[in-house]
Amino acid sequence: MLISKSAGTRVVKLALFIVVTATIAAEPVSFTSFDIPGATSYFVPGINDEGLVTGSWLTADGSEVGFTRFPDGRISTPILDPNDNSGLTVLRAINDEGVIAGFYGANVSHGFLLTEGKFRTMDFPGAVSTALRGINNLGDVSGTYSIVDLNADEFGFIIPRRGPAISFKLPDPTATGIVVGGINDLRQLVGYFTDATSTLVGFLRQPSGQFVSVIVPEAASTAVYGINDCGIVVGVWGDGSTAHGFYGRPGNLHSFDLPGAAATFAHGINNEGRIVGRYATPDGVPHAFVSGRLAAASCL
Is 6 helix (H, G, I), strand (E, B) or coil? Predict the structure, then answer.
């Protein structure tokens, strides 16, 4: 392992990538569907242990705006960063204190934290573009950034609540487009990348810096978006024609499709074992969902 330090940023490189394939076991998942009038698509990656959900939706004119959904079903939207003049404000994660992490900007992206209605910009030090996609209950945040161009998915990062920022790259030099998603209280984080065959591959990064591939056997693509505090990951796998949700641990993943859905996308999970995401019905209409508690995915 090679570690270098400069300007308060710790850069970690590890030449180790453990590959773990997954076993698939179908399991029914109960869920509650919800919709926002006028939405043409959803991305629903955030849920905390209080059941507060956060995400984004596309409007008819192509703008992307944020929303929060309360446990009683009330929805607050649109949520827009006041510095966003491009119509792209993306909410990606929420912790138990109600702090939301996200990013804005169609060209130059900037990360932000949203606390009690107030936005605070948070970019990786020295980055020209930052996409903030995760926050844990300790206040650590995760995501990706770029120092070369406006593509924010060049390096992964963790910015701890205290201490120097941590930057990292994938150990596979042929891999491209690292996308870092959720982070839990152990500083395990998840995401996905594109390998040399142009296939999406999911990963789990351990606090030590070790990468573990998360791959659904026979899948055309695997992407991991969220993780809870007991290490249960959630994501989406594609079979070449449609999408399916999954949850579990590397090597023991469970695939699921929502009843009546033509495609299922799992994007987030809390410690109670509730999953959030989106799905499409056979007529192509998009919907967002919150699942019931899954005992096999619960930390409680």
Answer: strand
**Joined tokens for residue 58:** 């596309």
Instruction: Supply the range of the domain harboring residue 240.
Output: 15-297
Whole-model pTM?
A: 0.90
Reported as a single tens digit per residue, the pLDDT across 240-257 is: 999 999 999 999 999 999
Number of domains composing the chain: 1
- Higher model confidence: residue 33 or residue 15? 33
Instruction: Tell me if 234 sits within 8 A of 276, measured CB to CB.
Output: no
Query: Which CATH number characterizes residue 260's domain?
Result: 2.120.10.30
The Cα-based distances of 78 to 88, 108, 134, 158, 212 in angstroms read: 11, 21, 21, 28, 37
Average pLDDT, stretch 215-237? 96
Separation CA 199–CA 219 (nearest Å): 10
Q: Is residue 36 part of a domain?
A: yes
